[in-house]
Design goal:
- The protein is of the alpha/beta class.
- It folds into two domains: about 150 residues, Aspartate Aminotransferase, domain 1 (Alpha-Beta Complex); about 240 residues, Aspartate Aminotransferase, domain 2 (3-Layer(aba) Sandwich), CATH 3.40.640.10.
- Strand 16 and strand 17 form a beta hairpin.
- Helix content is about 40%, strand content about 20%.
- The strands form four sheets. The chain has a seven-stranded mixed β-sheet with strand order 4-12-11-10-7-5-6, sandwiched between helices. Strands 1-2-3-15 form a four-stranded mixed β-sheet. Strands 13-14-17-16 form a four-stranded antiparallel β-sheet, covered by helices on one side.
- The protein has 14 helices and 17 strands.
- It binds pyridoxal-5'-phosphate.
- Pyridoxal-5'-phosphate binds next to helix 5.
Length: about 400
């Protein structure tokens, strides 16, 4: 089947909840993917922040194949070594957690955190603490609980009523948060660096202030590190530079090396409130994925890898600053490590399309923010190539009058 036939089949039979790129990806190698025509694309999306180690990592493949030959699935009615070992490694790496709930996606990790927050209070007889505070431009997933904490009209409005008890304050506005963190609140969820919402970095005073307010008022603080965690920002956890810890942390995306897994890390207080029967999932903690995730976690925890992310991040920032100086349509450049947002003054769809044509994958974080999420193993040569392609695309797009440049 050629690319055209596959696209036609997809159009006819797949229920489209995503806008698709106009080509079919066939394989990946290193930092590149190849379409069915053999065209090569430098990947600065990484399967939406998943393929941190690029494509074809030998250690990932080895772990996956070894475990697949032993035991592919067993369910949570039984213990398996990969699950227990991964949980231990996550707890030890976290610096705050006591136990881990494993699931299949970021959204599920958030849903678990919502339920655990409520259970923490309901089991001790505090019936009124059911509300959860989240923030503007946050993204926590698309199921009805996580969606209630993801305040974007386009995502929410067609699906109301959502989970009751969601409250929203402006991101980085501690006073607004303080007013809503009241005696009815069981938890507050925040991304230390917002990915989908535009690559927005939490202010130091804001994140530290939230920690203090939640501690003073007996409210659980959840850091959603599904996108920004596991090395993406240059530290293993995005919250590390702030010097504060959460009570719960959600993870997913890169953890499974491309296979679906989510994790909700909980402190001892939360762990003590959860009993068998409170939550579950048939597929969660799949042995093959847990074995693979151990390799991924070990690799992403390496100081050398994290130093590489920081160094390449600074290099990418310089390159983006050069583009900003050249193209007036760029309003701001922001990010940390290897997650960067380039904000334009107009819809960026033509830029993404031009990048496809020129062999570069990029994605959106809102209509006007181009998001760059290269594999964490991306090197200077790849960044030079990406910056060169972006320069070309912006020149082309500006030339067509779709975005205004100098
Ligand atoms: C911060 C954050 N939380 C939760 C999610 C949902 O994760 P998933 O798509 O794996 O369900 C995402 C996905 O982009 C995310 O960025």
């Amino acid at each position: 089947m050629n690319g055209e036939d596959i696209l036609a089949l997809d159009e006819r039979y797949v229920l489209h909840t995503y806008a698709r790129a106009p080509f079919v990806v066939e394989r990946g190698q290193g930092l590149y993917v190849y379409d069915t025509d053999g065209k090569r694309y430098l990947d600065f999306v990484s399967g939406i922040a998943v393929n941190a180690l690029g494509y074809g990592d030998h250690d990932i493949l080895e772990a996956l194949q070894a475990q697949a030959g032993k035991l592919m699935h067993i369910s949570n009615l039984y213990c398996s070594a990969p699950q227990a070992q991964l949980a231990q490694q996550l707890v030890q790496a976290s610096g705050f957690a006591d136990k881990v709930f494993l699931c299949n996606s970021g959204t599920e990790a958030v849903e678990a955190a919502i339920k655990f927050s409520r259970k923490c209070y309901s089991q001790s007889g505090v019936a009124n603490r059911t509300e959860i505070l989240a923030f503007t431009d946050g993204f926590h997933g698309r199921t009805l609980g996580a969606l209630a904490l993801t305040p974007r009209a386009h995502y929410q409005d067609p699906f109301r009523p959502l989970m009751p008890g969601a409250k929203i304050a402006s991101f980085n506005d501690l006073d607004a948060a303080s007013k809503l963190l009241d005696e009815n609140t069981c938890a507050c969820i925040v991304e230390p660096l917002q990915g989908e919402g535009g690559v927005n970095i939490a202010d130091e005073q804001f994140l530290r202030g939230l920690r203090s307010l939640c501690s003073e008022r007996g409210i659980l603080l959840i850091f959603d590190e599904v996108q920004c965690g596991l090395g993406r920002t240059g530290t293993l956890w995005a919250h590390q530079p702030y010097g504060v810890s959460p009570d719960m942390m959600t993870l997913a995306k890169p953890l499974g090396g491309g296979l679906p897994i989510g994790a909700t890390l909980v402190n001892a207080q939360v762990a003590a409130a959860i009993q068998p029967g409170d939550h579950g999932s048939t597929f969660a903690a799949n042995p093959v994925i847990c074995a693979t995730a151990q390799v991924v976690l070990a690799k992403l925890s390496q100081p050398d890898l994290l130093a590489h992310v920081n160094a390449q991040g600074r290099y990418l920032e310089q390159k983006l600053n050069v583009l900003q100086a050249k193209f007036k349509s760029i309003k701001s450049v922001r990010g940390r490590g290897l997650i960067w947002g380039v904000e334009f003054d107009d819809d960026i769809a033509p830029i993404i399309a031009s990048a496809y044509a020129n062999g570069l994958l990029t994605c959106k974080a809102g209509a006007k923010v181009l998001r760059l999420l290269p594999p964490l193993v991306a090197d200077q040569q790849a960044i030079d190539e990406a910056a060169g392609i972006l320069d070309k695309c912006l020149t082309e797009v500006n030339g067509k009058g779709q975005c205004c440049g100098r």
